[in-house]
Amino acid sequence: MTTVYQPKHLLVTGGAGFIGTNFVYYWLQQYPDAHIVVLDSLTYAGTRSNLDALNEHPGFRFVEDTILNQGKVEKLLRDEAIDTVVHFAAESHVDRSIYGPDAFFKTNITGTHSLLKAAKKVWMDEGNLPVAHRFHHVSTDEVYGTLGPDDPAFTETTPYQPTSPYAASKACSDHIVNSYYHTYGMQTTISNCSNNYGPWQFPEKLIPLTISNLLEGKPIPVYGDGQQIRDWLYVDDHNRGIELILNKGRVGETYNIGGNNEQANMSLVKQLCDAMNARFPSAAHYPHESLITHVADRPGHDRRYAVDTTKITTELGYQPLETFETGMQKTLEWYLDHLSSWEVTVSLFGTHE
Question: Which of 171, 230, 265, 329 has the fewest CB within 10 Å, making it most exposed?
């Protein structure tokens, strides 16, 4: 019989970012009496106003600080009686990691270790260890490297072969988390997800950048031939997977979370163009695909990612609820309905990831 773990007091790092914001709303919808503390340093991709709707929620607290501030994290763990850490905070844009890797190594490696040290000190060294606790680390399928067109999808036992500074930093943090399970007995879990999309995503990533440029009549930059393939995961399907891992996942295990939706970048962009053609047939730049502009491919660009979700499906009953079509429709409608909340300056040096 599966033992069910129910988090009561959660510390969510990076909770003002894209996936973290969606997770906080998702969790409080599922568990209205939960207590959530969001820790976010509000870098360019974290927006405090994302969470304004929760300001009056009795179980919600926002703290602006960095995961590198170990003393602050220790105090939060004690003061808020935290039994569960859900660690989203990360530098995650591959292009930025190519041109400025230092921030990725500092946040993703040193920052993760700082969190683990804080949890170990408060939960274990000081004797404040909850009867049950979790440290859940949110990672990426990019740690596995790249696939050929006919290669089987990544499984949890696929050897790590990261090819970008971002992927390397996440691979390192995964290993550090696992070491705290094996060496110290911390109750850790890891999830490696595929490409997320949905509300509140910062518009340097492919889907919101494409939508933004389509609305403004700007060129849509597509790397190389646009045939790079990714598995696309609607953000709340990701959060549903994390919920299952927290509640029923085996301690010390890694679970891949995917959307079972492989799409080439060019195909995805053209589908968005078709949707905007139908929505705005009188636009000055109609047909919208006329805005597609091929740019030089980025260094070391992985050709294909695909995620095998057999483990989380068979062990925990995971199934994504959104098809690519329904998820994209929800995403497009959200951005069109919330133009003022995501109009920010967008760097056009690359397309996504």
Answer: 329
| Residue 308 is among the residues annotated as catalytic for this protein | no
Query: Which tokens is 259 given?
Result: 């959307």
Judged against a pLDDT cut of 80, whether residue 222 lies above it is answered with yes
d(CA 302, CA 230): 10
Mean local confidence (pLDDT), 44-71: 95
pLDDT of residue 128: 72
Active site residue 141: yes
> 0.90 exceeded by the pTM?
yes
Per-residue pLDDT tens digits for 98-139: 888 999 999 999 999 999 999 999 999 997 766 679 999 999
Catalytic site includes residue 74: no
Domain segments of the chain as ranges: 9-194+234-259+306-321
Name the CATH superfamily for 9-194+234-259+306-321.
NAD(P)-binding Rossmann-like Domain (3.40.50.720)
Q: Contact 34/7 with Cβ under 8 angstroms? A: yes
pLDDT computed for residue 349 by the predictor = 32
Please identify which of the residues 40, 83, 91, 141 carries the catalytic annotation. 141
Catalytic residue of the set 166, 180, 181, 305: 166
Residue 196, both tokens:
């997320």
The beta strands (E) that lie in 141-269 are given as 188-193, 195-197, 220-223, 229-234, 254-257, 262-264
pLDDT tens-digit readout, 283-306: 898 999 999 999 988 887 889 999
